[in-house]
Amino acid sequence: MAGNEIGEDLLCLAALEADVLSRGGEHIGPVDKPLDNRLKIWYNNIIESEVVAMLKKSESKQMKMSFVTLESLMPQEHFLRDLDRLVDFDFVYDKVADLYSNTGRPSVDPVVLIKMLLIGYIYGIDSERRLEQEITVNIAYRWFLGIDLDERVPDHSTISQLRRRKFDGTTVFRDIFDEVVRKCIEAGLIDGKLLLTDSTHIRANARNDLREVIEVPDTPTEYMQKLDREAYELGLIKEPVDYDTTKTKEVTKSITDPECGLLKRPGKPTGFHYLDHQTCDSKNGLITDVFVTPGNENDCTHHTERIKYQIEKFQLDTEAICADKGYDSGEIYTAMLKRNIKTLIPERSRSGTPKYEPEFDPKNFKYCEDQDIYICPAEKELLFSSYSKKNRRKRYLAQKADCITCPYRDRCIGNSKNPRMIERSIHEEARNVQRQNIDIPEYNSAMKKRQVWCEGNFSHQKENHNLRRTRKRGIERVTEQCLLSACALNLKRMVKLLKGKLLQTIFSMFFSSEDFRAVFF
After folding, report:
1. Residue 423, CA distances (Å) to 105, 333, 391 in order
2. How high is the pLDDT of residue 513?
3. Burial letters for 194-229: b for 16+ Cβ neighbours within 10 Å, e otherwise?
């Protein structure tokens, strides 16, 4: 009996096999014939296997030897290949030559180390330890650095030791940044006609709760001291100001990073920050200057000296500068006017309740430059009285008798027993001249460019180039970070612009404008 069942199964099996082959492997769904369960399972597996015939599983690979080069593995269309083609980094050797001895053990190539740092900032790798790991496994990074597949990548500690032993106290990173700017100028990407300035806050690598209040000398800022020197040169004060060095004031400092500053500005996060002041050219938005200060300094404090630095460093023929109302400073107006540079800066709004009725606002008092007096709405004179060392402004006083009998007294000084006084900045004349630029057509265009380029650059750097917060502590380390971040942005934009310029040149060599229209239109 058992032998007959086996024989029947074999016959059914042969019949099913012939059926499958005759159909060419076409899927017909589950079998609906009254077959043995074992045969149903076999039949359906055969049919359903045709459905998944395209699914392929990788088998284990055997070890093999391949003869390849970095050049063959590096894609032809890659940013680092374009960067290597357009920028020669051999200038780094000249910048660091005086930092190396002529004797001793050969060093790691400084160009390789600088390129490693640039890779980290270009691709947003903010850890030098992770940077070493990424370069080890990334063929494009190895190709750019000239490190072959069988060579070891420089250790991350090499960078930190080089920074501590050789780069500290030097201008090597600023020199590298300036050289990139100079190459952009030579390529015609920067013209320097209109410079745009702004600042952004960068969170310091410090806890906000670890702070202390310390006593520091209460001496005027460098900007205020400059105003005092100008007042002395103009004869407004008889002798140079002698500052009281014994006077002190309380300042909140970070215990973790004493060089950062406590930022307290409306609309800004309160805490310990640094300020990254950047100037960029309006032609393509390339950054031309980077300067870092503690977070509690004013924007306008170092503006004039940084503009002067750029003009002299790169021989720029600057015609105008543009900034936001944080740079509404008389000192800036005067300094730029002396250089015949227009200032495109909005007027800062003055908070608080107006002290006088609009008709008797100081703006409506006429100033006579030849006599150095003011004329009030009642046609009375206000004569120069003194120079306020506290406010750094000139004071003009009306005659007491004129104010007592004035028909406008109630609307001007009210019940005050003192005559009307007006304070005038020593930079007021330059301020009035420069504020006329608000009405010129270039003003609105410049303000839009400032918003697009300055604020856009900051946003791009914080998102992609390690400027979200500081990784290290101290103003020198943060300056290095800001310079390299700006350098990364400049290099990316430089490559993009030069590559497009090159393609346009090549195209123009083969097609005239008539040929182009004939072919494509």
Report:
1. 67, 18, 9
2. 52
3. bbbbbbbbbbbbbeeeebeeeeeeeeeeebbebbbe
- Listed in sequence order, the residues at least 6 apart from 381 whose beta carbon sits closer than 8 Å to its beta carbon are 373, 374, 375, 398, 399
Blockwise average pLDDT, block size 10, the chain, 521 residues? 53 57 50 50 51 67 80 92 92 88 84 95 94 95 94 91 86 94 95 96 92 76 71 68 70 91 88 96 96 92 94 96 93 94 88 66 86 90 84 86 88 87 88 91 94 95 94 94 97 92 60 51 44
pLDDT, position 15: 61
Query: Which residue(s) pair with 203 in the sheet?
Result: 273, 469
Contact 115, 140 (CB under 8 A): no
For tokens 């006088």, name the residue. 356
Torsion-angle region of 477 (φ positive above 0: left; ψ -120 to 50: alpha; else: beta): alpha
Count the alpha carbons within 13 Å of 358 in the hemisphere toward its beta carbon: 0
Per DSSP, 456 falls in state H
| Cα–Cα distance for residue pair 84/4, rounded to 1 Å | 81
Q: Spell out the residues 6+ positions from residue 384 whose beta carbon is closer than 8 angstroms to its own.
A: 372, 373, 394, 395, 396
Tokens at 64, concatenated: 């093999």
**What integer pLDDT is reported at residue 482 of this predicted model?**
97
* Rounded distance between C-alpha atoms, residue 273 and residue 261, angstroms: 6
pLDDT score at 521: 44
449: number of Cβ within 10 Å = 20
